[in-house]
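Course assignment 3, question 2. Fill in each field.
Student: A.L.
Task: Predict the tertiary structure for the chain below.
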Amino acid sequence: MTRSEASGNLSPDRRSKYRRPRHLVSWWGILLGLIVGIAGGLVYAWIVNPLVEFDTEPWQLRDEDRAAYVAAITLRYSYDGDLNRAVTQLLALRLPGDPIQAVAEIACRLASTDYIDNSSGQRAVRSMMQFYQLQGRAGCADNLLVINDQPTPQIILEVATPTLRPPATKTPTPPPAITASPTPQPIVIPTLVPQTDYVLVDVRTFCSAELSGLIEVRVQDFNGDPIPGERVRVRWADGESHFFTGLKPERGLDYADFQMEAGKAYTVEVAGRSDPSQPLVAGSCGTDTGQEAITSYRVFFRPR
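Answer field:
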């Protein structure tokens, strides 16, 4: 029997199976490959080698981070009174509408939450209120938090009023039958509101060609959370410098830094709220790759 005759004996269903056209591409294989490729790319990008952002612009921050950045701006303004610098930094945030009124809206939002449950949050919101009130703006925070709503503690001392001796006369005056005891008069002595003090909890050294001779300062609360807007002071033999945490948000809202000069010694402190650190000497060091650099420091402050 010939092949043609044999094929003629096949049923129509079997003949259609062999005559069906062959596809050069498997669509199921392509779909499966796409799924595996996308999943692998996400694992690599999110876990194996996540992207680290540098030089983040202020307007690219999340809403809560922008609010903390505004707090750092107004806290700095409360120290130096530089309105031009404050407005320039607010404009860099690209806030909608009037930037000063936007500060009032942010203060309103923060004053309506548990952000003001601690002293640092209250101080930040009060600095915003003072900033926009001085520029003739108003917001709902004015009704939620008073700038100076904490009474000044007082010490009351009971001091006896001295009794003066009567002047001498020619006729002796008989002594009074009953001598009244002196009446104590209260004297009110105002005292200063106690400040939250910081203590230096850690100093670490490192050697880096990219960050050569840098003092990195972080000011945090008891839980290690960032505290923006704290004024940091660095002193050396013939000068000093002041700067604030939170103005480089890409490095953290508790972060501030200072560039040292080789061969000099520096002390760092939270200005007026902590003791100075031990001298940090800008000596030479060698990196892991054999490059020459200046020793750098990481300094951490937390409440006492």
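Instructor remarks: The chain is about 30% helix and 20% strand. Helices lie at 3-8, 12-19, 27-48, 63-80, 83-92, 99-111, 119-134, 141-144.
Grade: pending
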